[in-house]
């Protein structure tokens, strides 16, 4: 055949196709929803292209379904925009193009998990292989000359054949050669029920071919209402219809967590239907991945992923925006600067946050589900959206020292209600992990005084806290930042503390002389109980966790010059202070500093030297007191 060639899928794609075909899906019929949705999108794209192309008549757009029981085929066709040969290769020859191997590695045999794969990884078209042993695609692009079309065929065994053909009309036909045990999809009434269930809300007619036995003729019968769901009155839409529309829109098999449907009239007229998913997509942390709302103007499809309407920290929101004010020939560049768009953006952000506020207030358990999936994304909000920062802060959740586990369930309202009398600050600590934060020496006095501290261990937390200064008049205070007021938490009075500091002033000078410029300053602290010393950062200096965050992104980070704070009441510090031998004194101070740096950073510049020093001091302690080993 003319232009025929056989091409191979990527090796990992073959593995994925095999897994899809032979896995037990809990709901096989979703393949029809996916193929009808794709056909609908092709028609909508043609309708949009016709707006900006002179002399282009798109005619009566529709999706058609026909059944051939003798040949055991099911065909889904559209008269939409079609595909060129290159587009066929790009769209049908590559599956889950980004991160395919990581996708495959995440798959398991759990049936419920498998049922959610379609759409979530961009494999909607390939769901046809669940019920078919061969799939044929015949397509002709609206831009193709004469009758030039393309045929694509595959049995899902690792290769496909592509051929140049003649096709009279634009659009795409997908012909499924059904497996022997899939007779149910040759039943017109079953197909009607699937369309009614999944595609009733499409704004495009879905027609099925019917046969009249009396006069031996065939005709096309529309089997859906062809009214966009968002244009209907909310009171006329059932909960199941909202859920099915979400699945059509997002290609997500899970039900949405919540949604908000609103029609605004007046100076600016628009309708919005926004959804919060229950489950995060696999590429949620790829900030470059396309996201946003589906944009319509006067019910005419304009674009997918209109990201101008929502900021990055709300990139998990799915939905539709249909405006009567935006000009129909609007381009992406114009859309970014249009004042109407900016007004819509403000309104949609507010609506999205209100959805989350409602869930957090009325259904805490459901909000826990949201936070587990999308909490780290929402934490980007304080830096990106200063206008809504108070609302965002109220939606944040944390773990704290009153929690029994690492689950982030504490709101700032919860924290402030539990604050001690005369407590003026909201205390928090950032660390590499929950356990590191929970067991940090910086918390010793807080544990003793039963003062709650927020435990922050997500990588983004330090960056987030740099954009949050206060909550309800209470300032935030990192417990790893220098703060002389923390000495007030100690059991000793200010007068006794002052006397201790005066008595140990020579010791402090001796430590400063030893360490020199390796530390910013040396001070005594009364906030510790069981730890000899800690290092802290000055309030105006870069914190340890912020330095790690910058380093992880490949940025050059200046060396942190720590403040060295020593516990004068610790028995080892008292021993060091009484030591006359300079070498032994240096060993003690270096040991304290290394321990403090290790607790703060999780690493040491020279761990071997630290181990040698520690072994030397243990050996010396044994020589001075041999009874230790026998006790």
TrEMBL record:
Region span, C: 549-631
Entry GO MF terms: ATP binding; ATP hydrolysis activity; ATP-dependent protein folding chaperone; unfolded protein binding
Pfam family, one: HATPase_c_3
Entries under Gene3D superfamilies matching the protein: 3.30.230.80, 3.40.50.11260, Heat shock protein 90, C-terminal domain (1.20.120.790), Histidine kinase-like ATPase, C-terminal domain (3.30.565.10)
Alphabetic keyword roster: ATP-binding, Chaperone, Cytoplasm, Nucleotide-binding, Stress response
Superkingdom assignment: Bacteria
InterPro entries: HATPase_C_sf (IPR036890), HATPase_dom (IPR003594), Heat_shock_protein_90_CS (IPR019805), HSP90_C (IPR037196), Hsp90_fam (IPR001404), Hsp90_N (IPR020575), Ribosomal_Su5_D2-typ_SF (IPR020568)
Signal peptide residues on this chain, from the entry's feature table: none
Region A, annotated ranges: 1-332
Main location: cytoplasm
UniProt cross-references to SUPFAM superfamilies, sorted A to Z: ATPase domain of HSP90 chaperone/DNA topoisomerase II/histidine kinase (SSF55874), HSP90 C-terminal domain (SSF110942), Ribosomal protein S5 domain 2-like (SSF54211)
Cellular localisation: Cytoplasm
Chain intervals for the UniProt region annotation (B): 333-548
Entry function: Molecular chaperone. Has ATPase activity.
HAMAP family, per database record: HSP90
Family: Belongs to the heat shock protein 90 family.
NCBIfam families: PRK05218.1
Name this polypeptide is given: Chaperone protein HtpG
Organism: Candidatus Erwinia haradaeae
Gene from which this protein is expressed: htpG
């Amino acid at each position: 055949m003319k232009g025929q060639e056989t091409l191979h899928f990527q090796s990992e794609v073959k593995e994925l196709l095999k897994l899809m075909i032979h896995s037990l899906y809990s709901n096989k019929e979703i393949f029809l929803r996916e193929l009808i949705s794709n056909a609908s999108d092709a028609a909508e794209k043609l309708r949009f292209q016709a707006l900006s192309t002179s002399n282009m008549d798109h005619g009566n757009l529709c999706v058609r379904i026909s059944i051939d029981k003798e040949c055991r085929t099911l065909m889904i066709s559209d008269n939409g925009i079609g595909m060129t040969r290159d587009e066929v290769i790009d769209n049908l020859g590559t599956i889950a193009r980004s991160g395919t191997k990581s996708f495959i590695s995440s798959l398991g045999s759990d049936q419920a998990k498998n049922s959610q794969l379609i759409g979530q990884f961009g494999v909607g078209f390939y769901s046809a292989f669940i019920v078919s042993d061969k799939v044929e695609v015949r397509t002709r692009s609206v831009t193709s000359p004469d009758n030039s079309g393309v045929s694509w065929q595959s049995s899902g065994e690792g290769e496909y054949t592509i051929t140049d053909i003649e096709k009279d009309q634009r659009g795409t036909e997908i012909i499924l050669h059904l497996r022997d045990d899939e007779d149910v999809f040759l039943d017109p009434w079953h197909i009607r029920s699937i369309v009614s269930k999944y595609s009733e809300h499409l704004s495009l007619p879905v027609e099925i071919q019917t046969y009249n036995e009396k006069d031996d003729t065939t005709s096309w019968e529309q089997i859906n209402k062809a009214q966009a769901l968002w244009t209907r009155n909310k009171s006329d839409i059932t909960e199941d219809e909202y859920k099915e529309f979400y699945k059509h829109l997002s290609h997500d098999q899970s039900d949405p967590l919540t949604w908000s449907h609103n029609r605004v009239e007046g100076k600016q007229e628009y309708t919005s239907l926004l959804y919060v998913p229950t489950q995060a997509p696999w590429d949620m942390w790829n900030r470059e991945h396309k996201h946003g709302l589906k944009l319509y103007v006067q019910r005419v499809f304009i674009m997918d992923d209109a990201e101008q309407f929502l900021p990055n920290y709300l990139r998990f929101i799915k939905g539709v925006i249909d405006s009567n004010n935006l000009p129909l020939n609007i381009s992406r560049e114009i859309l970014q600067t249009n004042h109407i768009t900016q007004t819509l953006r403000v309104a949609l952000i507010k609506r999205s946050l209100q959805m989350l506020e409602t869930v957090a207030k009325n259904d805490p358990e459901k909000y826990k589900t949201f936070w587990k999936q999308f909490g780290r994304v929402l934490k980007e909000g304080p830096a990106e959206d200063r206008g809504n920062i108070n609302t965002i802060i109220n939606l944040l959740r944390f773990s704290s020292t009153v929690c029994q586990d690492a689950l982030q369930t504490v709101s700032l309202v919860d924290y402030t209600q539990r604050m001690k009398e005369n407590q003026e600050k909201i205390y928090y600590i950032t660390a590499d992990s929950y356990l590191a934060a929970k067991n940090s020496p910086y918390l010793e006095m807080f544990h003793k005084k039963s003062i709650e501290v927020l435990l922050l261990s997500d990588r983004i937390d330090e960056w987030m806290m740099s954009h949050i200064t206060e909550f309800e008049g209470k300032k935030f205070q990192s417990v790893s930042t220098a703060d002389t007021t923390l000495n007030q938490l100690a059991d000793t009075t200010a007068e006794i503390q002052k006397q201790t500091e005066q008595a140990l002033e020579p010791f402090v000078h001796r430590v400063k002389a030893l360490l020199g410029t390796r530390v910013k300053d040396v001070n005594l602290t009364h906030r510790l109980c069981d730890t000899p010393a800690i290092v802290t950062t000055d309030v105006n200096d870069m914190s340890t966790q912020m330095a790690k965050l910058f380093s992880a992104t490949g940025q050059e980070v200046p060396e942190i010059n720590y403040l060295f704070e020593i516990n004068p009441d610790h028995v080892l510090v008292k021993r060091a202070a009484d030591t006359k031998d300079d070498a032994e004194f240096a060993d003690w101070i270096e040991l304290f500093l290394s321990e403090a740096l290790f607790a703060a950073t999780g690493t040491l510049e020279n761990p071997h030297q630290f181990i040698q020093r520690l072994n030397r001091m243990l050996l010396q302690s044994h020589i001075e007191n041999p009874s230790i080993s026998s006790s």
